[in-house]
Design goal:
253 residues, mainly beta, two-stranded antiparallel sheet, 1 helix
């Protein structure tokens, strides 16, 4: 009860310290299972709000498979289905578009290298290739409140390289709190947007993110993770708010 109260208090303090507009609360739950031959499998769900809890931003489900051939190396693949919301607005033709949801499919594969320079400190470097595909879809549009056909939102495919460096500190062996901090860099490898009929080449630093928080061990199988994330995003990026506060529950077997 004390650990849960501390998590809620920390979330409340962070939320009160930041402006209300264009910020995100993230809630997640995940489960992982050990398999033979150093394999592991996992699944999770996630919900993100927009402007704190004023609007829903997106929700997702994912499944993953990991392999740890060496103590310091982990290989992972992941699939994620995402539904994200775009709020009502006017398009380039001056017609009103209502709020709508769109689907995305995301595949990723990566390597995580771990190193423990001292007993209490762990460092990790993760390199992950990420492919995101948004199929084309139709959105109804209105002219002065009158239905005016449909607007076609064409498909989009994005290729990214995500590089993350993270540090974790465990004060002592049986400590239930493990603080961490990390830096993640997004590099655009290639993007195909069929609306503009063009392909962009590599662009260094599409965006970067800083995060800091703590894992809170409840018992052998249950854990909470709470963190704050700051994102410096590109002008056309709609996947991240500037500020995010997250609470994630994990179950492991």
């Amino acid at each position: 009860m004390i650990r849960k109260s501390l998590a809620v208090m920390l979330l409340s303090a962070l939320a009160a310290a930041m402006p209300a507009s264009a910020q995100t609360l993230l809630f997640g739950a995940e489960a992982s299972f050990k398999l033979p031959a150093q394999l592991s499998a996992g699944a999770g769900v996630e919900f993100r709000s927009m402007d704190w809890l004023n609007n829903a931003d997106q929700w997702s489900v994912d499944a993953s498979l990991g392999w740890k051939p060496l103590k310091w190396l982990k290989v992972g693949v992941d699939y994620k289905f995402i539904q994200s919301q775009t709020l009502s607005a006017f398009n380039s033709d001056g017609y009103a578009l209502p709020a709508y949801w769109n689907n995305k499919h995301r595949l990723s594969a990566g390597l995580t290298f771990s190193w423990k320079p001292v007993k209490k400190l762990s460092l990790s470097l993760r390199e992950r290739y990420q492919l995101t595909r948004r199929p084309s879809f139709l959105v109804p549009q209105f002219n002065d409140g009158t239905p005016w056909g449909n607007k076609t939102v064409n498909g989009k495919t994005q290729h990214l390289l995500r590089s993350r460096l993270q540090a974790e500190y465990k004060p002592y062996k049986k400590c239930r709190f493990t603080p961490f901090a990390g830096f993640e860099l997004y590099s655009r490898l290639r993007e195909v947007n069929t609306t503009k009929h063009r392909a962009d080449g590599a662009r260094f630093c599409e965006k970067w993110r800083l995060n800091a928080g703590s894992e809170i061990k409840i018992d052998k199988h249950n854990e909470l993770e709470i963190f704050y994330r700051y994102c410096d995003r590109g002008a056309d990026d709609d996947g991240d708010s500037r500020h995010t506060i997250a609470l994630v529950y994990s179950f492991s077997l």
